[in-house]
């Protein structure tokens, strides 16, 4: 909050220098602790994944299979609609010839 005032005050400079050294050391300790904890959590996650008998271990493959089936059905429905339209057009054109 008072950064600008502290920097411009000559009497605060020695305190800021000492504080800077202390803060850098503390921040480094915190970063090291966080890095260690993250590595431990990743390791535990891998262990749990190896031991897990989850029902959906291959959920991605199942999802892709379901999506491919759905897309095939959609294509078949689209083709069926197109065929119906064709037959309808052919029927209309044959009805016109019957009236003439």
TrEMBL record:
Segments of skewed composition (Basic and acidic residues): 67-82
Pfam families linked: Utp12 (PF04003)
Domain annotation Small-subunit processome Utp12: ranges: 1-46
TM segment ranges: none
Region described as Disordered: 67-100
UniProt-recorded name of the protein: Small-subunit processome Utp12 domain-containing protein
Organism listed in the record: Citrus sinensis
Coiled coil: none
């Amino acid at each position: 909050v008072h950064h600008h005032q502290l920097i411009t005050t000559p009497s605060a400079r020695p305190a800021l220098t000492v504080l800077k050294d202390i803060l850098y050391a503390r921040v480094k300790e915190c970063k090291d602790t966080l890095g260690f904890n993250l590595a431990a959590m990743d390791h535990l996650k891998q262990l749990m994944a190896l031991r897990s008998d989850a029902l959906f271990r291959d959920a991605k493959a199942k999802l892709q299979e379901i999506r491919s089936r759905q897309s095939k059905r959609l294509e078949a429905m689209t083709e069926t609609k197109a065929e119906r339209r064709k037959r309808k057009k052919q029927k209309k054109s044959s009805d016109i010839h019957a009236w003439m």
